[in-house]
């Protein structure tokens, strides 16, 4: 995108240079036109040089035509320059709004990531707590199981003794 801006900037500078040359030529032509008009006025005073006056008038007409063509060209160059400036402005605005959108999106994603990190940390704490509780419960159940097995064993022993005593009685 920067290359496009640079290219457009170079194009604008080139057109500005052409514009400046055209203005300089216009000024020179205007100066020449003034000189020609002065010369024409002097020739009109001197009737004997009428042919020169006609020639100067033709030159003046040619210069006027050239001036009109240059003015049209200058206007066309100005329009092109304005189009390029407008395009460059729109591109710059588009680029800026895209940057803002990306900044907002990055900010939103960063916030979302932070929230997920907080959630993960909370889940990890809960998982650790549950794991400790589960270990404690397993230890209690293991103790209860061992106690139950001992009681079962004692029950069988007592039952066996009872059976043995019944047989003796």
UniProtKB/TrEMBL annotation:
The keyword Secreted does not apply. Keywords: Coiled coil, Cytoplasm. GO terms for cellular component: centriole; cytoplasm; deuterosome. Its main location: cytoplasm. The keyword Zinc-finger does not apply. One of its GO terms (biological process) is centriole replication. Residues 57-119 form a coiled coil. It is found in: Cytoplasm. This is DEUP1 protein. The gene is Deup1.
């Amino acid at each position: 995108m920067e290359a496009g801006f640079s290219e457009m900037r170079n194009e604008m500078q080139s057109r500005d240079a052409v514009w400046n040359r055209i203005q300089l030529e216009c000024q020179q032509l205007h100066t020449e036109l003034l000189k020609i008009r002065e010369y024409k006025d002097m020739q009109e005073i001197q009737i004997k040089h009428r042919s020169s006056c006609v020639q100067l008038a033709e030159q003046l007409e040619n210069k006027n035509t050239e001036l009109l063509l240059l003015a049209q060209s200058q206007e066309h160059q100005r329009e092109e320059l304005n189009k390029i400036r407008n395009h460059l402005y729109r591109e710059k605005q588009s680029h800026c709004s895209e940057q803002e959108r990306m900044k907002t999106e990055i900010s939103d994603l960063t916030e979302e990531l932070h929230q997920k990190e907080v959630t993960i940390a909370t889940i990890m704490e809960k998982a650790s707590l549950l794991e400790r509780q589960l270990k404690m419960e397993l230890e209690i159940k293991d103790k209860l199981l061992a106690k139950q097995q001992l009681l079962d064993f004692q029950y069988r022993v007592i039952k066996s003794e009872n059976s043995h005593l019944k047989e003796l009685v």
